[in-house]
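#random but structural
TW: two for the price of one
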Amino acid sequence: MTPAPAAAPGTSPAPPAPVVPAHGGRRGAGVGEVRLAPGFWGTLQETNARATLAHCLHWMERLGWVANFDAVAAGTTDRDRPGWQFSDSEVYKLLEAMAWELARSADPALEVTYAALVDRVAAAQDADGYLNTCYGHAGQAGRYTDLSSGHELYCVGHLLQAAVARVRTAGEDALVAVARRAADHVCREFGADANPGICGHPEIEVGLAELGRALDEPRYTEQARLFVERRGHGTLTPIPLLSPAYFQDDVPVRDADAWRGHAVRALYLAAAAVDVAVDTGDVELLGAVERQWERSVARRTYLTGGMGSRHQDEGFGDDWELPADRAYCETCAGIASAMVSWRLYLATGDVRYADLMERTYLNVVATSPAEDGRAFFYANPLHQRVAGQDVRTDAENPRAEGGARAPWFDVSCCPTNVARTLASWQAYLASVAGDELTLLQHAAAEVDVALEGGGRLAVRIATRYPDDGAVRVEVRDAPGREVTLRLRVPAWARGARFTDVDGTVRDAEPGWAVTRGVLRPGDTVLLELPLEPRFTWPDPRIDAVRGCVAVERGPLVLCAESVDLPAGVALDDVRVDPCAAPEADGDGAVVRARVLAPAADDDALPYAGAPAGAPGDADLRLALVPYHRWAERGPSTMRVFVPTA
């Protein structure tokens, strides 16, 4: 195994991290530079390692998705192939998750499992580098005969991202060799003078860009650039009832003003565009993605950070089209949103990108997995009208919209995406720029980073966030020169306070709380974030929730569940009294509410000549719980936005 390349003298080494821009003065912490302690994220990561990785492998073995590689290797593809045409990608995402987890835990048993899985993948690769179990072999359609829906290049993109995780954490091995051959094949087949096509599902672009960085191979970066520039010219065959926007093939990336079409496709493409822009110095392209982020966040994003309001194409709606009960908010779209925001933060240093990442991590990504790590939400609606009871625990679930977490889906992109995200989550906690360490996400952890110019800055973060707003940071090691330590103050945190190393207490406005000086072991700073529950009102242009209100507590979106209501009271009949401020209740809140009077005639049309359904006289104390915990106590109806009295 070849070790990772050494850094040039006097500079910090390229960190083993998911995203390492080729240019720029800011980098994320490496997965080995941050170790999560027991707490919110530490527990999720440990559960992921202990349960989710094996759970994903079990289901893919059980359904024959891994055996598809064996069939190609054995030349027995002239049989029914199980799984969708993109099932290979789930194996690759699991390999990526394993690679990041091995960098964290060095688990010998997992290393054996990883190596065995890589061997089966490698055996299926054709001599010229082509690798796919659905096309190009006996009894199958020919290579690249369905670029719109075949997902061949999409699958390769996830293979390349898995290889990036491995080469950055352990050096070159069999998986990296497979990825090199696959990337070389793509460059030959789709280069400037070859096939001008693109894949119906963006992903190859971000895989090529990051592998080009990891292996210092400019051909891969250039191919990623070509793919980004080719999009938006209507070259893909449309699917009936869906526009070219579904494929991100309606408008060139540079010309788009907002994200539209299939949400995951849009966001994977945006992430790749940032990579290409940063590595090629393309200011115009970077500005285009920033422009799209701004409008899409301001007009097309849910309170949870979720993206995607239409089920029929898993896509974005128009401006202000944000129905709570039909919100799709696919888990994969939440992960992809964080991918884009992380790249934009590294490129610009703007705190708003880290703010959105926190919102999305806590209210979308953390919502998906069950407490045991063996069931998941695919979609994340903000209003569940009917308690979900149709989840199958012993088979694939064909529906992704139920109100209960499912062990596996017919299309199971989300479980493996959650697995790879949680396995590497610590890499998004902090960034380094020159002699400055910035703590972007608040979690109990130990951070030990190399600073540019030499020396290390090590800190211990003690916090129970998001259950508690106190974030205490103690210096463990520091160079004998001035350095800067920054903590993010979220945009919602009005009234935050910061205690500096000298004991000085000052108000901390949203943005950054900063201390600079010659830090010494034992020095401590304290950031206190106010977690009092608060009402959050929707923009009046969002028709679907006009007249409703939500409650947030710190970074957490709260929700009401039917399991907390008195017998005989339906959640849709509850009205919140907005004149009474919400009260704290553990990690949730309580609000004063009333219940609608019974309808006079349930047999008539649901309309009348005068307003109906006035609240009754009975007061109700409505309990609200963190949205990321909803449906943990059994099937329930649920609302984030509740109508007001």
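TW: number two ↓
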Amino acid sequence: MAKLKIVHSELNQEVEERTRAAAQLKIFKKVFENALEGISITDPEGRIIAINQAFTDITGYSLEEAVGQNPRILKSNRHDESFYKEMWDRLKTKGYWAGEIWNRRKNGEAFPEILSISSIKQDDGEVSHYVAVFHDISEMKLQQEKIQHQAYHDELTGLPNRYLAHDRLSMALKTAKRQHTMAAVLFMDMDNFKYFNDSLGHTCGDTLLQELGSRLKKIIREQDTIARLGGDEFLVIAGDIKFQEEVLELAGRLFEAMKEPFSIAGHELLVSLSVGISLYPEDGTTADLLIKNADMAMYQSKISGKSRYHMFTPELNRLALYKMDMVKEFRAGLTQKEFMVYYQPKVDPATNHVLGLEALVRWQKQDGAVVSPGEFIPMAEETGLILQLSRYVLEESCKALKLLKENFSFPLTLSVNISPLEFKQPDLAENMLNVLKSHLLPASSIEIEITETTMMTDLKSTLEKLNILKKEGVSIAIDDFGTGYSSLYYLKKLPISTLKIDKSFIDDITTDQSDANIVETIILMAKNLGIKVVAEGVETKEQFELLAKYKCDLIQGYYYAKPMPLEDLIRYLENIAKP
């Protein structure tokens, strides 16, 4: 009986173990069947004896088609024999292999996968099976390629971006050095793109950039590169250049291609380019230097009248170095108070009374050298230093105005020029009003002068800022009237109090009847709109008499007085222009 009990207990234990094993096998079967990874099992000779559903989903081979076959049915032919030899050598020595491999689906499509193969050994160490587990990484590869493409290509046009252009230019320079040839960089900027963008909208602007990129791509040779650096700037890299004439011919093709208008949202747009060209090795031996020099040459094309090209020259480099030195000296000049504010009177021609002043900045270095505003104002605007300079001029002007009010009883309005960059600042009105308040000056004692072009850049923002200033009492003057948009629409919509007729119309007013008619018309129109008119640049008695005849409100120019420092202005007001 004791032996029977032992046998019965052992039988029960074996049944329990077999039940647990069966349950475990059932679980393993479910895992095998439902795994997202493809799984195949082969015998020692490499014949497939089992696959799961994911294997079929990924490769396209059914169980009936795969069983009995060698895994070579998935071979993509993208790997050489040494690849597979290394794989099997590792399986034999280590018992496993894992890595990235390309296989082929039943429909012939090659796909990348992460594959791991393990050998299953018996107790005696002999291999009984091989188990391969793989995961299709096609989507991951596509995402990687997309990210890679985005990192080196412009999102809008699909062209190479600045980084890829730099890399290709570096490669082109190595080839040119090895083959003793030249390479060229053509730096292009679309003329008046901001006008197209603002007038038609950013969507049309983007479409124009795409169309321009496509057209440029068709012009260049297959071995050349067209890239978009950003905004409306494009770059062409041309290698294997044997003669400079080849580059000039390419530039000629670029301009020829621009003769055909672009059709954008129902608009026919004629586009022109400003182009700068630098050559390897003459103008530089590095990618950075060649791009920089081509950019300088492009800028020269821009200021020379647009729609043309310039070759880089050492003179352009000299000018660039001069500009860098000027920026450095400008910063020092602000610290050392080398800038002075001069004032030019505005006189009523009917009474010879001074009713206004314009504040004009002058730069005299400590060594006595005088820098023309035509040189340092554009540089200050470009570098952003104009904001510091404008704040300085406003502060000094307010100090001067306060002193003049203490010494003279007649009213004076002081005009200060607002630069395009300063006008873009969202806190322009707040800052200006705070400065006036700090000097205990009423807002009505200040007039701001802005150009037509500055005013029309963003009409909505312009209207908001000007209305704030006008509401506080600040007067608004349009400077250089007649050289910009000269639209009756903005004269009606914007809170303008004064028009300043540009000097270019005044210069020939006594000899050119057309200019005389234009000036007279502006004065009549302004009077009908309740707007004052200032004629600037008046230098002769004949000009003065004609403007007085037209009943121009104020005269400004050398006929009455040059711009002068505050001390001289005080003497002038005391001795000459005091009412």
